[in-house]
Amino acid sequence: MKKFYSGFVSLVGKPNVGKSTLMNCLIGEKIAITSHKPQTTRNKITSILTKDDFQCVFLDTPGIHKPKHKLGEYMVKSATNTFSDVDLVLFLIEPTDRITEKDEFVLECLANVKTPVVLVINKLDTVDREKMVQVVETYKNRFPFAEIVPISAMKGTNTDTLLKVIKQSLPEGPQYFPGDMVTDQPERQIASEIIREKALRLLQEEIPHGIAVEIMSMKKRPDQNMVDVEATIYCEKDSHKGIIIGKQGAMLKKIGTQARGDMQRLLGTPIYLQLWVKVKKDWRDSDFLLKNFGYDKKNM
């Protein structure tokens, strides 16, 4: 009987280093939201890659950083708690010849990890060969990595080599998920994350990290191929509410239009989306509100 390999792989690194982009690239579908703003990912996001002889379950984690509020603490714990629960850790960095303070903080978090760690140097396309050699030497002398693999998550360069390294690290095991399943995320969570992504991309720099999205209702219309979705965007300040809504509702409409398109593609059904905006001051430091928005300490 043909051997089958399966296991779990965690993607870690500082915020905005390309973890979600890499996971989407490896899976071949957009599972995790992306933006140019750091700390876009707030929860562990699970995606599944199934081939003829192996299945890899990826955990895309929030960027590891020194937290400034309870949401930040949740995000860091959510990432570091995966270290001992997986078969392999992928540590993503950018190609700099010195170890930045943020990357040093991640290395400190990895110091006592017994799980093999592969260093993945992202953005291969932005540096020449000589610079890449310097980066490899710098990090090789700092930590006993199982492997070092330069890639470009955006362009998909050398990701086939990374997949070979991943497969070699997986133990023999069962197929945990059906072959056609690419994520175990509930549809409501996917919908809320899509809305938050569009807000992150469209709004001003000072607002996005102060927002959360809650799906209030998600129902299929009786006898119709249409799903009605009602969602609320929460922000921390009254002044932000006006910016999110925009002049004559233009910004909110733009967020809704872009979100609806992605939701329809991902869920495979027409969507009628209604959005509201509410103010919840200091929600990022409220245990009750964090739990209400899905950031439950029990899941950390």
In sequence order, what are the helices and strands, one letter per element?
A: EHEEHEHEHEHHEEHHEH
What's the pLDDT, averaged over the residues? 80
Number of domains: 2
- Biggest sheet details: 6 strands, mixed
The CATH homologous superfamily of the largest domain: P-loop containing nucleotide triphosphate hydrolases
- The proportion of strand residues reads 15-25%
Strand order of the largest sheet: 2-3-1-4-5-6
Q: What characteristic shape results from the CA principal axes? A: globular
Report on the structure:
The chain has 2 domains: 5-169, Rossmann fold; 187-299, GMP Synthetase, Chain A, domain 3. The protein has 9 helices and 9 strands. It has helices spanning 19-27, 70-80, 101-110, 129-140, 159-169, 187-202, 238-245, 250-267, 287-292, and strands spanning 5-13, 45-50, 54-60, 88-93, 117-121, 147-150, 212-220, 227-235, 271-279. The strands form 2 sheets. Strands 2-3-1-4-5-6 form a 6-stranded mixed β-sheet, with helices on both faces. The chain has a 3-stranded mixed β-sheet with strand order 7-8-9.
